């Protein structure tokens, strides 16, 4: 059973306007609702929660809908079933308008209830609505935002933490030697965390590798506990259920938040769960770009698919200096370099996303002399202040093997030796000298119909220079047009020299390390 869409009008602050139109949200497998406090995240979750907990219903109606139309919501399912609730002022004129509601509840067009209910007296409503139940094929589970509460590990708790043992700060991996190699002798149970007697957990830490520590669950970091409580909770949910999570990122730092959303997706696929979760965290925006995940921006009156991250970050109160809006910046001289590098990177991993995993910035030739990796005063622009994970790609501009690099390039290389950034100086004259000569020749000929032949093709030449047949005059091909045609002629297949593959591998590793 899956919820396909939710339709609503005048539910709390959502869709409160002067028209009688309703709003609708089409749901995916995992649905992330992100926005500031009071923007409607919990309202969406509560509409679904009310299907299994009718006491939520009175809290949902807008008391004075501007349109004059009664508040309602309709939840549709993939089995063509639907659950409908509408509310208005009390039908009994003797009842107080501010304390009672007239409520109609329908299940797939079959009326289950029509009458007045209290807005505030839960016990009274439980008696009035006794015996009223939506017919639900599967369960609806709800987990509110809370601090870790378990005092004893449940069935999946320790297993979930051991799945991310290399991300648990300070924990000791008993399978790996100091040099990173696999140990020859590995304990039968080599997990970092092992269930012990009396609810204690046998734990291994970096600063005490010779023996374990037996600790109660309450002594563990709150983030570890929150992660394990949420993931083990989901694994315990009935297969095919709908699971509602309020702000699961609480207590988690950004890396654990991203790991959590990834793990939620894995569990939802394994157990056929549908997830609705609310969050304030921008880390959750970039955590997953799977087709299984949809991200919605709640804005008080509206709920829409996220299409403008800047507006969202403004709503949440983040400043540009608070977050890096891409994980890594690749500095290149011009747009043709971007075209080639993006093409080569995609052959390593076609799931890398420009603008999230990495972005390009152009420094335009001699303008590079105004940049530096470090903050060296007002006369220089620090690249690392724009993004701490920076890759600088520079053409050597050498015309032969013995030519020296200019002073700007030497300065950038020297300032990079502390490992804070990566520099790639081309092995030949410029990045075009890595290209396959046959494909490049065809590309220049396609872009320039008067092309006759290239002048030179060695690694120290300007390989974009060519002759035209009619008068043997020298021309220089258009860098960007040729780059686009070259990629097209490669038919999405990267053509590497050994040197190029080594450099792209290093860039790819730098980007993935920044992401992880």
From TrEMBL:
Protein name as annotated: ATP-binding protein
Organism: Shewanella eurypsychrophilus
UniProt GO MF annotations: ATP binding
Cited InterPro entries: ATPase_AAA_core, Bact_Antivir_Def_Nuclease, P-loop_NTPase
Keyword annotations from UniProtKB, A to Z: ATP-binding, Nucleotide-binding
Keyword Nucleotide-binding recorded: yes
UniProt keyword ATP-binding present: yes
SUPFAM superfamilies per the UniProt record, alphabetical: P-loop containing nucleoside triphosphate hydrolases
Domain ATPase AAA-type core: 30-285
Organism phylogeny: Bacteria, Pseudomonadati, Pseudomonadota, Gammaproteobacteria, Alteromonadales
């Amino acid at each position: 059973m899956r919820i396909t869409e939710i339709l609503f009008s005048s539910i709390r602050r959502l869709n409160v306007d002067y028209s009688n139109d309703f709003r609708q949200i089409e749901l995916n497998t995992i649905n992330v609702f992100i926005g500031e406090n009071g923007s409607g995240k919990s309202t969406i979750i509560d509409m679904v929660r009310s299907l299994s907990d009718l006491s939520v219903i009175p809290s949902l109606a807008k008391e004075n809908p501007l349109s004059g139309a009664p508040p309602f919501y309709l939840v549709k399912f993939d089995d063509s079933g639907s659950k409908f609730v509408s509310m208005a002022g009390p039908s009994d004129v003797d009842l107080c308008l501010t304390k009672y509601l007239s409520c109609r509840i329908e299940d797939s067009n079959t009326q289950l209830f029509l009458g007045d209910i209290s807005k505030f007296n839960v016990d009274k409503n439980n008696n009035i609505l006794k015996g009223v139940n939506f017919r639900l094929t599967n369960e609806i589970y709800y987990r509110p935002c809370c601090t870790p509460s378990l005092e004893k590990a449940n069935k999946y708790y320790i297993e979930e933490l051991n799945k991310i043992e290399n991300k648990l700060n300070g924990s000791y991996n008993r399978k790996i030697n100091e040099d990173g190699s696999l140990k020859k002798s590995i304990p039968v149970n080599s997990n970092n965390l092992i269930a012990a007697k009396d609810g204690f957990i046998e734990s291994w830490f970096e600063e005490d590798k010779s023996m374990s520590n037996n600790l109660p669950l309450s002594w563990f970091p709150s983030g570890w506990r929150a992660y394990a409580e949420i993931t083990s909770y989901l694994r315990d949910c009935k297969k095919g259920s709908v699971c509602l999570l309020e702000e699961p990122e609480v207590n988690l730092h950004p890396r654990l938040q991203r790991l959590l959303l990834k793990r939620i997706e894995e569990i939802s696929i394994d157990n056929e769960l549908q997830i609705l979760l609310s969050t304030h965290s921008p880390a959750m925006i970039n955590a997953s770009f799977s087709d299984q995940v949809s991200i919605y921006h709640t804005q008080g009156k509206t709920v829409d698919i996220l299409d403008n991250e800047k507006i969202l970050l403004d709503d949440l109160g983040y400043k540009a200096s608070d977050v890096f809006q891409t994980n890594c910046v690749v500095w290149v001289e011009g747009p043709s370099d971007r075209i080639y590098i993006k093409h080569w990177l995609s052959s390593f991993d076609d799931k890398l996303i420009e603008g999230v995993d990495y972005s390009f910035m152009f420094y335009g030739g001699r303008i590079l002399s105004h940049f530096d990796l470090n903050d060296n005063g007002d006369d220089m622009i620090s690249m690392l202040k724009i993004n701490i994970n920076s890759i600088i790609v520079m053409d050597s501009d050498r015309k032969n093997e013995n030519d020296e690099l200019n002073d700007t390039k030497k300065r950038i290389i020297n300032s990079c030796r502390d490992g804070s950034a990566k520099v790639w100086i081309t092995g030949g004259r410029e990045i075009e000298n890595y290209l396959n000569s046959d494909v490049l020749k065809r590309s220049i000929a396609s872009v320039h119909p008067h092309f006759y032949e290239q002048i030179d093709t060695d690694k120290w030449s300007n390989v974009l220079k060519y002759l035209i047949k009619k008068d043997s005059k020298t021309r220089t091909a258009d860098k960007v047009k040729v780059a686009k045609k070259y990629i097209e002629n490669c038919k999405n297949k990267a053509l590497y020299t050994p040197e190029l593959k080594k450099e792209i591998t290093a860039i790819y590793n730098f980007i993935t390390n920044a992401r992880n």
